[in-house]
Prior knowledge:
Layout: H1 11-20, E1 23-28, H2 34-49, E2 53-56, H3 79-82, E3 86-90, H4 101-107, E4 111-116, E5 128-132, H5 139-149, H6 156-169, H7 181-189, H8 196-204, H9 209-221, E6 223-225, E7 230-235, H10 237-242, H11 253-257, E8 265-271, E9 276-282, H12 288-295, E10 299-300, E11 304-310, H13 314-327
Parallel strand pairs: 1-2, 1-3, 3-4, 4-5, 7-8
Antiparallel strand pairs: 6-7, 8-9, 9-11, 10-11
Helix pairs in contact: 2-5, 2-6, 5-6, 6-7, 6-8
The structure holds manganese (II) ion.
Amino acid sequence: MRHIIINAMPIDSQIDVILKAQKILLSTHRNSDGDGIGSLAALYGALKNLNKQVWFAPVDEVPKRYSYMLENVDTCLNPDEIKPDLLIILDTNQGELCNPLYKNCISQNCKVLFIDHHVDDSKPHPLVFRIVKLEAASTGEIVFDVIKKMNVPMNDFIAAALYSSLTFDTQAFKLVKNSSRSHFIAGELAGYKINTEGIQRALFAHWTPDKMLFLSELIHSAKYMSNNSIVGLTVSLKQLEKYKLEGDDVNDIVDMFTLIPTVKFAYFIRQASDSEYKISFRSAGYDYAYKVAIKLGGGGHKSSSGTWLKADGFTMLEEKIKTELRLIKLLD
Ligand SMILES: [Mn+2]
């Protein structure tokens, strides 16, 4: 495993980088999620309060279920024209998940600040700053601290965006990284005029009869191995098409399989294009997900990680995963 570098720089110097910038672009990883968009919208609201010029620069299309957070957020589709002083990337510390935006900003000598809670094994770069806190259950938790440090007063808009971010990444306060912080922060946010039930439904209540049918197909095709300690799932583009589903619609399904107490490791391979596959790993209570993801060129959290790989079918990818599982003695 590669060595994990934890950023030793105190947060104040990164806050200074934000405060000194005037034109700021905000972005998040491709295949954005509720934490990335929620923390981004909250920071947008805070920076607007500081009279900064701020835009959201998307790297791909944002799934519809998160768009309620972006209603009052200005989007910039031509970042090159703006010549920003700073690009802030939320919920990832891998620039390559934000290309070509990240690459272009660096080549124009624009500073980049990552605010994130995934394992960070990147090399230092003179233009790149980082606030990476592995103990945070969501990026929203870190943005809450950043907003306090900048002395921006909380308001209804920021509170709703942060509540969305926390709710999404903790899966409605189930996964809080063994810390009470998510609950304490949520308590403060709920004191503002926000619709906590509406946010929960906007984030999670998007099932369709087709998705239910898809789930039943997936339940039947799941492969259990090693006395039900491993479960493998695969989804082709054809299946998604058959049930009228987008990639983001099925990202939550793998988590259901970790509710089986014997399951120590679950993998979910989703075909994203003819030759590209998104692979998610889960290992509730164990770090196997990260161990396997890092060997296959990805990253993430201890028990929830993933990677993107090129392949010409599922078999070769499943063999790669099984080889890694044998190396960590999960599979004979
Ligand atoms: Mn996150």
